[in-house]
Each structure stands twice: as C-alpha cells, then as structure tokens.
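Memo to structure team: turn this sequence into structure tokens by end of day. - J.P.
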Amino acid sequence: AQTSRDSASAREDAMLSGGCSLDDEDRYKLCEPLVLQCPKCTERFDFKGCGALVASVTAANAPSVPDLLACPKCAAAGAMTDPEASMSTPSKPAEVAYKCGKLSGAMLANQVKLRLHDYVARYYDGRLRCDEACGCETRNICCAAQGDAAPGTVSFNSMCTGRMSRVYTEADLYKQISHVVRLLDLPAALAKIADEGKRSEAARLVAPFMG
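Reply from structure team:
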C-alpha cells in the first residue's frame, strides 16, 4: 500500500513539476474555464473563481462585490432587482434560484460534478493524434511494427513516420481538475491575504456570495 501511495505521489509531482516555478495564472492559463449554466435563462457563463472574488473585495475603491453564482445576462436584464431574488432561504433555495438567475450551492455542486465527468470522459475517449503534418487522428490503435516505435504509436498512414500520442493526456486531465479545485478553494484564496484583519473582513464580505 505504501508503494502504491509513493508511486501516486511521484506521478503527481511529475505532472506538475514542469510548472512548479509558475504562478497559478500561468500554470493554468491553457485550462478550460469552469462554465456554469443559469437556472433561469440557460445562458452559460464562466465562473471566475474565489481568487477573483477575494481580489475584488481587497482592491482599492472596489465599487461592489461581484456575485460569482449570478448569471450576468439576468443581472443585466434586472432580474437581480426582483424583491424575491433576495429571499434566499434554506427552505426554498432552488425556487429562488430559478426566479432570479442565481445558482444555489447545490446547483453549483451538481454542475461542477457534470463538468468533471466531461473531463474524465474526454480522457477515456482515448483519441490519438499524429505528431506529423498528416493530421491523422483516431481512437483506434495501430499495432503495426515500425522501427523502434512503441506499441500503439505507429500512424495509420503507412507513408507517415510520425508517432501517435494522446490528444488529452493524463497530465491534461490532472491539471484541469486541479484548476477547478483551485477556482472553488475559498480558504486558499483568503490565505493569500497577509494581513489577518483584512483577511477576516474579506471572508465576511465574500461569504454571502458563495452560497
């Protein structure tokens, strides 16, 4: 069991070692945004992350605290000004969410779970792409032998000497899931505020906007 844990730890370190000297924005800049869907108008919008929320409340002269779970389209249309939009009670969170265009905590959890399922499904789709200009892309594995090529890496194009590799790798999947975890990690975002007083004030201000 210890050997298994050590192997998993080594694999994790290898996946992230290439970006260990980068900050979060650079490390995850190629990751897909976490896309949420409005329960009222079905508009899709990017979840900016807890880091963006904390940054907004600590910025000088910040006009207001952005609601990360609120649909921008509904907000622009004035749905958030509906008196019932502020009646978010534990007894009727879904009803209020559908009325005002804001996701409840349960809706956020469900949509994040669906996005994670999408990422995992893409990995197990197992698409391969050739590293040459022939553009060969397939889910099928060619078992033909060609020089010192590893099994399954030979292109289906017999005229091509390129090698097939995964379009969506294990490292891609790991980094994408790590990105989603980072976006939702409010304690980690707050921990970046050095001043304890400002950190406590930021936590108080952002709490209502994270369901």
